[in-house]
DNA sequence: ATGCCGGACGTAACTTAGTTACGACTGTAA
DNA sequence: TTACAGTCGTAACTAAGTTACGTCCGGCAT
């Protein structure tokens, strides 16, 4: 042919195309053909770089955690460790609600047949490690009750994640307008619960 | 033909077949053809009763909440309202972990393109209403801090749901064996946080 | 310089799975 | 008895993940 078949597609540009499609059409619209078209190549191009749709989703999974970490790392300027933790909690929801399709790929099993392999899962838990550090700081400063930081961080994560997932599943008893306020108060509840001295059971 | 084409399939028996397939093959294996084969009819049988795969999943969604409610309603014999609430929390996880595929259909968006309509969502929130009642009881008895019961119930639900979803997503930093213990302590944490008097912010 | 080789890519086809057009059968009611 | 409504099967249509196969390109040894 006269013209080159196409410009060589880097893995990154193809991943960017996948992100575009995911944002535009959601997890259900994330088709190999759509990604290929967005990237300006044919379907086999996707397969040479990612092996399968699963590989593509795995790349989106990891990419999501990197963007997510970056968003949480943007939080700064809080006066205390606890205030920082609270600000991170607010930023968490902001990112998740702002990127619902990406969040659901990361946490929700929204792509059929997709299950992250061990490496992507480790990447996910790495984000959790940052949270543990911030919890640890708040314990050191005496703002949170001394306890096993990993388990307390997991408790915080689970609570926040639960709020976000219920909201993304549209399971909200009150009007949507109030979701942010309900979340804010929930964040206060879980944090203050960790400040109080827990009864000996 | 000599024999009748097939025995008439009731909607219920077909739903039961769908539950069997969902349990056996997971959400990804929930194919109209598989359900039809399990029910002993052809694919069109599914369509006459459910209209579409979406209708079938919607039926599974509602069916899940009914089973789920029944499981929670089995909890009894607790000495106090708070003990009952805690027992319900344990039963919640037991059911979810015991029926992960069904739970994910109800909450996780595990079936592509499926979004519950208004009616199924109302059915889901009905389960939430029971929880609100139990929380209310524990406030009346003075075991939980007086507060808006709906919002406190939502907080409990979100926390529990978050733990369960993280576990179902295999996002657990510690070995699986400990998941139940971590959950138990998490339940203690959230409940005791609701017992303590929260600082005025 | 020339020919070989591996990676990247496109075309076209294969396969699976949701869906539907069409016709046949059953039981009920007028 | 006949018309009708509901149920069901056969076979086909369509969308989407995947792959067989051939081509092109750039680097490298001879």
Structural class of chain A: mainly alpha
Strand content of chain A: under 5%
Gap from first CA to last CA of chain A: 77 Å
Runs of chain A in which pLDDT lies below 50 for 5 or more consecutive residues are 1-6
Q: How much helical structure, as a percent, in the residues of chain A?
A: 55-70%
Structural features:
201 residues, 9 helices, DNA-binding, homodimer, mainly alpha, disordered N terminus, elongated
Write structural notes for this entry:
2 copies of one chain form a homodimer. Chain A has 201 residues and is mainly alpha-helical. In chain A, 69% of the residues lie in helices and 0% in strands. Chain A has 9 helices and no strands. In chain A, α4 runs antiparallel to α5, α4 (53-73) crosses α6 (100-107) and α4 packs parallel to α7 (118-140). The longest helix of chain A has 23 residues, at 118-140. Chain A binds a DNA duplex (30 and 30 nucleotides) through α3.
């Amino acid at each position: 042919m006269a013209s080159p078949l196409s410009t060589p597609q880097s893995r990154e540009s193809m991943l960017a195309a996948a992100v575009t499609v995911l944002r535009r059409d959601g997890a259900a619209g994330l088709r190999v053909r759509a990604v290929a078209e967005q990237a300006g190549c044919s379907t086999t191009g996707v397969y040479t770089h990612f092996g399968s749709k699963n590989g593509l989703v795995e790349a989106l999974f990891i990419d999501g955690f990197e963007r997510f970490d970056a968003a949480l790392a943007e939080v700064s300027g809080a006066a205390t460790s606890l205030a920082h933790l609270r600000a991170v909690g607010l930023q968490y929801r902001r990112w998740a609600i702002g990127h619902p399709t990406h969040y659901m790929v990361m946490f929700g099993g929204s792509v059929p047949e997709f299950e992250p392999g061990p490496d992507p899962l480790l990447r996910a838990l790495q984000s959790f490690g940052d949270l543990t550090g911030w919890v640890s700081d708040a314990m050191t400063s005496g703002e949170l009750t001394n306890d096993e930081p990993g388990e307390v961080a997991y408790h915080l994560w689970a609570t926040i994640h639960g709020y976000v997932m219920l909201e993304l599943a549209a399971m909200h008893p009150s009007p949507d307008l109030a979701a942010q306020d309900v979340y804010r108060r929930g964040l206060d509840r879980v944090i203050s619960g960790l400040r109080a001295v827990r009864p000996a059971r």
